[in-house]
Design goal:
By secondary structure, the protein is α/β, with parallel strands linked by helices. The protein is built from 17 helices and 25 strands.
Length: about 475
């Protein structure tokens, strides 16, 4: 028996390759499925099953492409109603894979069709669970994503999740290995651990949601507390996973087309495409196409693209580091953006070489911000998350989280110079690009973000709002 976790850090997502006696099961595959097929071929095995733990909201699964390529059936848990042919497993239904068995355990709560897959070894012993978004390490799946589809409140869904955990998962022996669908950084939960594999026994000790003395009411209150609104692209991804989508090869053929600067500009004007610049933030700062949006490929690229572009049908034109064009198109497709129209051949250097208009971002070091603050009160806008802000921020700074910056546009001064920062510089450069694309240019980005700011003498308010000097 072989179990391999295929973890994708930028999505904080775990897919799984399980093999026994030449037969393979894939759980929650990513959009690009060739690596699974190549792995099976190399091992002289065939893909027999494709298991989906639920209709994913934060990424587009590769289940349909993989099924078409291999003939393996797609399997969902009870109550699932996909718009394509699939096996809808009954609660407790068993699937034989070589010498092992995979059992579908219906665990509704995150969504109504959510299913945990229990793996029993060749001797019939419970060995591992693939818990999807039902159980994470340190947390459980948020119960608010399926409210409209299930016609239930988040409290009602949380109650179902409580029952699923207590009746289906917690009775399993402590030695059972937990393989979750996501890790720290995913928007599908709140307090996930950085580790991606653990034992159920350890989770019973440290996961707040698995306390043995926890009442149903306490669980509902704690699980629903502090939930931020989900990213707006989530419903689009659910629809694609449930109804179908184009194969990744089609998306790549259209999106990875080189366009000379003149053709690039013409297509941008004709289609209304978003010009997305994915180079490093320092490169974007020094020069970029006017009104282009920055989201760097080497940061949390796909989730930020999904959160900020919002409409997955929006046409997109790319400015990428040379040689990474297909990677960018692929990573956009993972979160449902299938309408990339091409990329700027020669990257930004080709645009600049032709003498075309370009823009820059005004930046200042943290030390300069300190000097200006000492000379009088200045408007500072912090684009980190609320939890980061509460743990320490510039005294008097305005909280305008990047996730919802479009909701705060009216708060930025129209003429007065203001200052923007995040933790280290990546998110504030995204914010800077959005502000400039909206015609707001009277600001400076603070280089190095809050990490650099803390090294100066600027007044900092810590947790609880007590001003202190760091």
């Amino acid at each position: 028996m072989k179990i391999e976790q295929i973890y994708t850090g930028c999505l904080a997502q775990g897919a799984y390759y399980i093999e026994s006696k030449g037969e393979v099961a894939i759980i929650d595959p990513l959009r690009e499925v060739r690596p699974y097929m190549e792995k099976a071929e190399k091992n002289g095995a065939r893909i027999k099953y494709i298991f989906e733990t639920h209709f994913h909201a934060d990424f587009v699964s590769g289940h349909l492409t993989l099924s078409r390529a291999t003939g393996a059936p797609v399997i969902y848990g009870p109550t699932a109603s996909p718009g394509f042919e699939a096996v809808i497993a009954g609660d407790g239904q068993e699937f034989r894979l070589g010498e092992i068995t995979i059992v579908a355990l219906h665990t509704p709560g995150h969504t109504m069709e959510s299913t945990t897959y229990l793996l029993r070894d060749a001797k019939g012993r419970d060995h591992a669970i693939f818990s999807g978004d039902t159980l994470f390490l340190g947390d459980v799946g948020r119960p608010d994503l399926a409210q409209k589809a299930a016609h239930m409140t988040r409290e009602e869904l949380a109650g179902l999740l409580y029952d699923s955990l207590r009746n289906k998962i917690m009775p399993l022996r402590d030695e059972v290995i937990v393989y979750p669908g996501h890790g720290a950084g995913s928007a599908c939960g709140k307090n996930m651990m950085k580790e991606t594999v653990d034992t159920l026994g350890n989770q019973k000790k440290i996961n707040y949601a698995l306390r043995s003395d926890m009442t149903r009411e306490e669980f509902i209150a704690e699980v629903t507390d502090g939930l931020l609104p989900p990213p707006q692209y989530f419903p689009h991804n659910v629809r694609m996973n449930k109804e179908g989508y184009a194969d990744i090869d089609e998306v790549l053929a259209r999106g990875a087309r080189p366009l000379a600067p003149e053709a690039f500009e013409a297509m941008a004007n004709e289609t209304g495409a978003v010009v997305l610049d994915v180079r490093h933030q320092s490169d974007f700062e020094k020069g970029h196409i006017p009104r282009s949006v920055f989201i760097g490929i080497d940061g949390s690229f796909a989730p930020w693209a999904g959160a900020l572009i919002m409409d997955t049908k929006q046409p997109i034109l790319l400015i990428t580091p040379e040689g990474r064009e297909e990677e960018v198109v692929t990573r956009l497709s993972r979160v449902g953006f299938d309408h990339t129209l091409g990329y700027l051949e020669g990257s930004f250097e080709a645009w600049k070489a032709e003498g075309r208009e370009y823009d820059t971002v005004n930046t200042i070091p943290a030390g300069e911000l300190e000097k200006r603050a000492a000379a009088g009160e200045i408007p500072v806008f912090d684009v980190r998350k609320e939890s980061e802000y509460e743990n320490g921020h510039i005294h008097g700074a305005h909280l305008t989280p990047l996730d919802f910056i479009n909701d705060h546009l009216d708060e930025f001064p129209k003429k007065e110079v203001f200052y923007v920062h995040c933790a280290g510089g990546y998110r504030s450069m995204i914010a800077a690009s959005i502000l400039k694309s909206r015609g707001i240019h009277n600001f400076a980005d603070v280089s190095g973000g809050f990490g650099a700011i803390k090294e100066t003498g600027i007044a900092i308010s810590g947790e609880g709002g007590t001003p202190c000097s760091l």
